[in-house]
Amino acid sequence: DIVPLNLAHSTTAEIQLGGYVIPAGTDILANFTAILNDPKHFPEPEKFRPERHLDERGDFVQNEALIPFSIGRRVCLGEALARVELFIFFTGILQNFDIRLPDGVTDPSMDGTHGFIWMANPYLLHCVARQ
Ligand code: HEM
């Protein structure tokens, strides 16, 4: 959940959606936070549980509600680059460090600050360089 209300869009023509009539020229913000934290699609969304996205073989499970980059014609143009960057940064960190929660901490913090983006609040991790 990185861009909580997506980018602003507006209707170019009157449309009907979910029983509502939305006039042309209406500003539209999609509530991605609600979608990406919907317990119907992500049980106990407030819990840090990355394995929710993997099957028993460790392969990624597609989920139609997992849309941090949006969907449709205006989907993030940088999605492929962002995915590769995240993969390289994250695997680089995991290859070089064992990461644990600090002593006395049982759950990773999911606290963040809402703005144009959802930003994680500062948190502590115990990182030990791998030999
Ligand atoms: C984790 C990283 C990123 C996330 C979660 C993200 C998410 C998004 C979202 C939600 C949108 C709005 C889509 C819409 O209007 O429906 C967007 C648009 C866009 N993003 Fe990203 N983005 C990321 C990284 C990047 C990067 C690295 C680039 C470029 C190098 C990029 C370039 C763009 C551009 C150009 C648009 C506008 C596309 C358009 O309106 O046609 N994004 N992004």
Automatic annotation (TrEMBL):
Matching entries from PROSITE patterns are given as: CYTOCHROME_P450 (PS00086)
Matching entries from InterPro entries are given as: Cyt_P450, Cyt_P450_CS, Cyt_P450_E_grp-I, Cyt_P450_sf, Cytochrome_P450_fam2
> Could you list the residue ranges that cross the membrane?
none
Keywords of the record = Heme, Iron, Metal-binding, Monooxygenase, Oxidoreductase
Where are the coiled-coil regions?
none
Lineage, top-rank taxon, reads Eukaryota
Question: Is Methyltransferase set as a keyword in this record?
Answer: no
Q: Which family does it belong to?
A: Belongs to the cytochrome P450 family.
Could you tell me what this protein is called?
Inactive cytochrome P450 2G1
- The organism named in the record is Priapulus caudatus
